Amino acid sequence: MIRVTIWNENVHETDQNEVGEECRKWYPEGIHTALKNNLAAPDLEIRTAYLAQPAQGLPDELLNSTDVLLWWGHCAHGEVEDALVSRIQDRVLGGMGLIVLHSGHKSKIFQRMLGTSCRLVWRDIAERERVWTVDPGHPIAQGIPSSFPIEHTEMYGEPFGIPDDGKIVFLSWYQGGNVFRSGVCFQRDRGKIFYFAPGHETFPIYHNTNVVRILANAIRWAAPIAPVRDDAQNCSHECDPIEPIA
Ligand code: ZN
C-alpha cells in the first residue's frame, strides 16, 4: 500500500463570495475530499489534511507515515509555518514523494525544494487549455493521450521560474496564445517531486479523467522505493578508507 496524504489549505472552500460559491459547486466537501474520492484505488491508502487542523494538518505521526504528499495551496501560503516546511523538506530529502498542485507553485515547500522564484504569468478568463504529452514514455504519462483539452482553465504561462533540471512530461497551450511547462518532475536527494499546473479552484479540473489519471500515475511514480530516511540532513559522516592505503 502507498500511504498518500492530500493536504489542502481549504480556504476558498469556505469563502463567502463568488469564488467560494463556484468552488463549493465543484468541490462541496473541499478539493482534498474530491481528490481522495477520485483517486481511490486498492493500492492507495489516502488520508486528507488541511491548514485549520491542529499542527496545520500534519502532525509528526501523519507526516512520518506518509509516502507521497499532495499539496494544494493558494491564498494562505504565508500561514504555513516555516518549521512545518522544514519537516516536510527533511522527509522529501529522505525519500517521500511530493506532488505540488496548481497554485502550489508559490508555496513555501515548493520554493524551498527548488530554490528558485517559481514565478509565472497568469490570466483567469476561463479559456481553453490543451495539455500536450511531451514525454509519452514517462511513467506519469501512461494511459494519457498525446494531447487532451481542458475547456475552462486558468492560464499559467512562461517564463516559469523553475530550475532547468526539471524533466518536462506535459506542456500546455492556451487559447490566448501562452504556453507553459505544466507537468515537470524533479529529484532532490532521494525524494521525487512532480508539479502539475491544471487545477484552479473554480473549475471542475480535478474531475477530469485524464487529470485524475496523471495524478494517480504521479503518486505511484513518486512513491519511495526504499524506507524513507529520517536523518537525511544529518547523515554525513567520516568515512574510513575501503581500500588499504600504502
Ligand atoms: Zn488558480
Helicity range: 10-25%
According to DSSP, the number of beta strands is 9
Structural class label: alpha/beta
Ligand roster? zinc ion
The CATH class of the domain at 2-115 and 181-230 is Alpha Beta
Name given to the CATH homologous superfamily of the domain at 2-115 and 181-230: Class I glutamine amidotransferase (GATase) domain
General form? globular
Give the name of the CATH architecture of the domain at 2-115 and 181-230: 3-Layer(aba) Sandwich
Distance between the termini: 50 Å
Low-confidence stretches: none
Arrangement of strands in the largest sheet? 2-1-3-4-9-8-7-5-6
Mean pLDDT: 97
Q: Helix and strand string, N-terminal first?
A: EHHEHEHEHEEEEEH
Report the total helices: 6
Strand fraction band?
25-35%
Radius of gyration: 18 Å
The third-level CATH topology of the domain at 2-115 and 181-230 is Rossmann fold
Tell me what the structure shows:
- With about 250 residues, the chain is α/β, with parallel strands linked by helices.
- It has a domain at about 1-115 and about 180-230: Rossmann fold.
- Helices cover about 25% and strands about 30% of the residues.
- Strands 2-1-3-4-9-8-7-5-6 form a 9-stranded mixed β-sheet, with helices on both faces.
- Helix 4 (about 80-95) crosses helix 5.
- The longest helix is centred in the last third of the chain and has 14 residues, at about 210-220.
- Bound molecules: zinc ion (ZN).
- The site of zinc ion has 4 residues, from loops.
